Structure formats: C-alpha cells, structure tokens
Amino acid sequence: MEKTNSLQAKHFFPSGPNKFKDPRVTFIQETEKYVFKDDSQNLSYEWDDDKKAWFPMWNEQLMASQQSAYSVEGVDETEEVIKPKDKRKAKIYTMEDESAKKKPKVERKKIITSVYVSGLPFDTTLEEMKEVFSKYGIISEDINTGQPRIKLYKDSEGNLKGDGLVTFLKPESVELYWFDETTGKRAEKSKKVMILKNMFTVEEIEEDPSLILDLKEDVRTECENFGEVTNVVLYEKNPEGVISVRFKDELSVIICIKKMNGRYFGGKRIVAEVYDGKTKYKVENPLEDKEEEERKRSERYRKFLNQQNEEEQKDSTSENN
C-alpha cells in the first residue's frame, strides 16, 4: 500500500472517486470501473473501490517490465518453449489381441535335488537307503557331519514313520530316479515282486489243499514286517514250490530278500530273489488236465452205475416180499 501511495504521489494520481473530474480518468461501462491513464508511463490504472486505491492494468509493456525484473542471466526469455513429448503411448483399438504379441516371461526352472519316499519298512536303516539310492547318483553329504543327506522321519516318540528324504548332489539324479519310477512299467512292476522258492512241495499241496491258504497267510504276515504287501500268489503245481510276494515299493523287496534268503522253512532252505519279469511260474499241462477230467468223468459215471444197481436190487427185493 505504501508503494502504491508513493506511485500515486509521484505521478499525481487523482486522490479518490470524488475528484474524478480529472480528464485522464474515464468510466468504462463494460467493467463499471474508473480507469486512469498515465501518459508519462504509458500505463493505465484501475480504481479498486474496496481498497480505495489505483492498481496497474496488465498490458504488454507491463509484462515486459516484469520479465526484465525477474529475468535470469543467460536465459533467452523470447525463445519458444518446446513441450516434451508424452512418453505414454496412445491406446489404439484394433481387432488383434495385443497381449498375444507380448513376449512370455521366461520362468527359471527350480532345481530339485531331493526325493521324498514313503511306504518304507519301519526298521529301515540309513545304510539300506544309501545302498538303494546310490544307483541313481552321488548322494550329497552334510557339511557338518560328512554323512549322506538321508533323513528318516520319526514321530514324537522317536519311532520311524515309514517315510524319508534323500538329497542328491546333482538334479540329474532326481530325474533318473523318476525316470526309473515312471518308465518301463513292466520292468518296474517286477522290481516290486519277490520270488520265494522251496516253500512247499506239490505232494504236500495235493495231500492237504488247505495248506495253500495257510502258507499264503504265513508268508504275508512275515513279509509285512518289511513293507506293505499288496498281493501273495502260491503256484501250487510248480515243482520249485514258488510263492510270489508283491510289495508297494522296491525298497521293501530288497530289504525282505536280505532277511529271507538262506533261511529255513519246513526243513528246506529258502531262495529269495527279485522277479525277473519273464519267468512264468504257473505250471500249465493241458494233457494232465485232460486226463484228470477224464478220470473225474469216469468216477462220476461209476458212481451213477453203482447207484442204479442199488436201486434195481431194492426194487427186486420188494417184489419178492
């Protein structure tokens, strides 16, 4: 306000609206404002009735004076300002799926070096695990103990739960393990079957057919100590006295063979081995079966004739009486 008053004093501004008889003051109908034109400065001032003061009106000369007052040395104020390009790409509506053009993200393949196994016998040892899984590659060693990284899980009481984890040095070992698990189904099935020989004689079975069920039950009970048994088959006509035992996993077969092979059963030395996938233990003799059928047919006919004779004799005795 003081600065404005000093300007008014310097340029002999009209002091107020009561003294607007000054020829330099005009009333603008459009804005309903009084305007004072100072020819010495080539500037115009507008009367603010609220503040009771003259205020300069903006024009090119006033803007130029303001720019010169706030100009920065070395900067050309007259140079055209170039608006930076908008980096955002305008969206265009098309019939094509733009997302299909985007390059798919390449996901890094997770390296897996461990294998989880279940269905293990409850007395499985670390040495047995090492022997079975070493065929797939080098088993990693614990940095602190130097022992193979094989873990057998236990419950809260310290008893084995029947599952474990094996960590290999290289992921290729895991791939080899799963290849062995998922391919060659016939060969894989044979690895889960144990063959027991010298478990009986054909004569023993013929004399007492009930021995079949007893033997199968005894073998299943014994083998379940080493793993889950899914099937037991007794080949009653095989002269080697063969019984096959199918386990849920290969490891159980290996452990059971170690325990059973060389043991004695009924005075005979047991031979326990992995099924080779080829040998047929079921004995089929069409000629023997045909002869047996003929024998049975003859026996039935003989019984029929005997029955007929007995009935005829009864009828004859009745007539005589």
Provide structural commentary.
By secondary structure, the chain is of the alpha+beta class. It has ten helices and 13 strands. A four-stranded antiparallel sheet has the order 1-2-3-4, with helices on one face. A hairpin with an 8-residue loop joins strand 9 (229-234) and strand 10 (243-247). It is elongated and about 175 Å long. Among the domains are: 2-68, no CATH class; 114-183, 2-Layer Sandwich (Alpha-Beta Plaits); 188-274, Alpha-Beta Plaits (2-Layer Sandwich), CATH 3.30.70. Belongs to the HTATSF1 family. InterPro entries: Nucleotide-bd_a/b_plait_sf, RBD_domain_sf, RRM_dom, TatSF1-like. Keywords: mRNA processing, mRNA splicing, Repeat, RNA-binding. Residues 113-195 form the RRM domain.
